[in-house]
Here is the input.
Amino acid sequence: MSRVSLSGDVSSAWLVGAGGNFRLPADVPAGSYELRVYFSPDTATTVSTLSLADGQSRTIRCALGARQCK
Here is the structure.
């Protein structure tokens, strides 16, 4: 499993992939995921694709002004 944390200006964020759909923060299986972020409560934006290795920890930081996550 990989641990993914979230910080910044978002109402919620999800990882979506073949391993399942996970609301962040979460422990997720290794694999590739789309990062879908809700900068506003009504609209999801796919901001990137993540590849996670088993045992990896990652923090996603989002900025509302830039509408971007890294």
In short: Residues 2-56 form one domain. The mean pLDDT is 94. The CA atoms of residues 20 and 66 lie 28 Å apart.
